[in-house]
Design brief:
Blueprint (H helix, E strand, L loop, with lengths): L3 E10 L2 E11 L4 E5 L6 H9 L6 E6 L2 E2 L7 H4 L1 E4 L11 H9 L4 H8 L4 H19 L15 H13 L5 E5 L7 H13 L9 E5 L3 H7 L2 E6 L2 E6 L1 H5 L2 H6 L8
Helix pairs in contact: 3-5, 3-6, 4-5, 7-8
Bound molecules: adenosine-5'-triphosphate.
Protein name: ABC transporter ATP-binding protein
Keywords: ATP-binding, Nucleotide-binding, Transport
GO molecular function, one term: ATP binding
Length: about 260
């Protein structure tokens, strides 16, 4: 079975129930959003999917296989993630940062590289070309030789996205990608995210955990709403926006698409 599937996921912190019987599905070709008020459990859910936080109970699978218990196992399963903030390697250029994301893809060439065989040079060139193409796709190839500390924040976020895509994931996990961006930058990011499932030869499903309600409502096919660790609504954005439980959870705040 394809996609990400969570059933009955519980996380407790001492006496506090951070996630309570959470079910979630991300099917191939979809962008799925998780929203909820402060403290609803969004970060905990992201962490549990990534293997940073152990669930107390629950079933978590991707393409029918159990999710890894540690974050470094994700790539092997075909899952990539970006984190809050930017999180690039400061000592590497933008291009080199993106190449590091692709190394799983280049595993076949690694043996040759370790043995110093000629193939290694060819692989390295291919990786750099692929990284450059990704930077161009995301509109930041002008920064290929720059170092992360010199980048405008929004550019850094795009580079982090390029690095995640370099692994050619079938599922991309995005944790608050709109954090710290201007409204215009959020709009542009929305277009990029919405286009990810249909990328030529490397489309991926997306799980978007995000505060920014407008972005989620605009780009997601399905939205799950958490409140106090429980799923209070799940469905297409237009239905979620009219759901009384969702409106109440946001203290009567208007939910607009
Ligand atoms: N390591 C921890 N130890 C104890 N309690 C925690 C821990 N991490 C989260 N919590 C609590 O679990 C609940 C869910 O927190 P979480 O950060 O997942 O919510 P969130 O929806 O991401 O919130 P926000 O939108 O404010 O980031 C909160 O009550 C929080 O205080």
């Amino acid at each position: 079975m394809g996609g990400l599937r969570l059933r009955g996921v519980d996380v407790h912190f001492g006496g506090l129930v951070a996630l309570d019987g959470v079910d979630l599905d991300v099917t191939p070709g979809q962008v799925v959003g998780v929203i909820g008020p402060n403290g609803a459990g969004k970060t905990t859910l992201f962490n549990v999917i990534c293997g940073i936080q152990r669930p107390r109970r629950g079933e978590l699978t991707f393409e029918g296989r159990p999710l890894p218990r540690r974050p470094h196992g994700l790539t092997r399963l075909g899952i990539a993630r970006t984190l809050q903030g930017v999180g690039l390697f400061a000592g590497l250029t933008v291009l080199e940062n993106v190449v590091t994301g692709a190394t799983a893809d280049a595993r076949a060439g690694l043996g040759a590289a370790l043995l110093g065989l000629p193939r290694a040079g060819r692989d390295e060139r291919c990786l750099r070309d692929a990284a450059r193409a990704l930077l161009a796709e995301l509109g930041v190839d002008d920064y290929a030789d720059a170092y992360p500390t010199t980048l405008p924040y929004a550019v850094g976020k795009r580079v982090a996205l390029a690095r995640a895509l370099a692994a050619r994931p079938r599922l991309l996990l995005l944790d608050e990608p709109a954090g710290g961006l201007s409204e215009a930058e959020v709009d542009e990011l929305g277009e990029l995210i919405a286009a990810l499932p249909a990328r030529a030869d490397a489309g991926c499903a997306v799980l978007l955990v995000e505060h920014h309600m407008d972005l989620v409502m605009r780009v997601c096919d399905e939205v799950t709403v958490l409140d106090f660790g429980r799923v209070i609504a799940a469905g297409p954005p237009d239905r979620i926006a009219d759901d009384p439980a969702v409106i109440e959870a946001y203290l009567g705040e208007a939910v607009t698409t």
